[in-house]
Specification:
The protein is built from 3 helices and 10 strands; from the N terminus they run ααβββββββββαβ. By secondary structure, it is α+β, with helices and mostly antiparallel strands. The chain has one domain: Acid Proteases (Cathepsin D, subunit A, domain 1, Beta Barrel), CATH 2.40.70. The chain has a 6-stranded mixed β-barrel.
């Protein structure tokens, strides 16, 4: 039997074994889903004082939310550190933002880890408004300028990967 034939037989055998395995279903406590909104994986959200909605990817795989930040600089004022940066929204409009620095952290990615500044900003998704911590990153090569992570989603929403743009901001 050739190597290719053995690989094919092994693949078929593995497929049959997996299809015969019983499906495991985890129960989700009612308290985990009660009162939470259901959003699509892409939504228009409102950020801070920015008047127009911003497209965002709602990502249950991300621990923290992230913003597209350009020209990031740390400034000191009244014995407190602030971060000044330019947020570029989905329509390539630039918004100058200055917020107190919450912390400096390291974000792990497949390509390694990198240091990032963290700021807190008001975020409105649907009718849910919360102060959310965002890491600042150059997301200019990404499709969406904002990623909303579990630090917002776990308290407020369930995310449907089959839907997008299901709501209008009501905050």
């Amino acid at each position: 039997m050739t190597r290719q034939s053995r690989a094919m037989v092994l693949g078929v055998a593995l497929g049959l074994a997996l299809s015969a395995a019983p499906a495991v279903q985890a129960e989700v406590p009612e308290s985990d889903i009660r009162g939470k909104a259901i959003y699509g994986h892409i939504e228009q959200v409102r950020l801070g004082d920015i008047p127009d909605p911003v497209p965002a990817r709602l990502d249950t795989g991300a621990q923290r939310s992230s913003l597209n930040a350009q020209d990031v600089e740390i400034i000191e004022r009244d014995d407190q550190r602030y971060v000044r940066f330019t947020f570029v929204d989905g329509d390539s409009r630039e918004h100058e933002i200055e917020r107190p620095l919450v912390e400096e952290t390291r974000v792990r990615q497949a390509s390694g880890s990198e240091p990032r500044y963290v700021v807190s900003l008001p975020l409105c998704v649907g009718d849910r408004l919360a102060d959310v911590e965002f890491t600042l990153a150059d997301r200019s090569s990404m499709t969406y300028p904002m990623l909303v992570g579990r630090n917002f989603l776990s308290e407020h929403a369930l995310v449907s990967s089959a839907h997008r743009n299901t709501l209008k901001s009501a905050c």
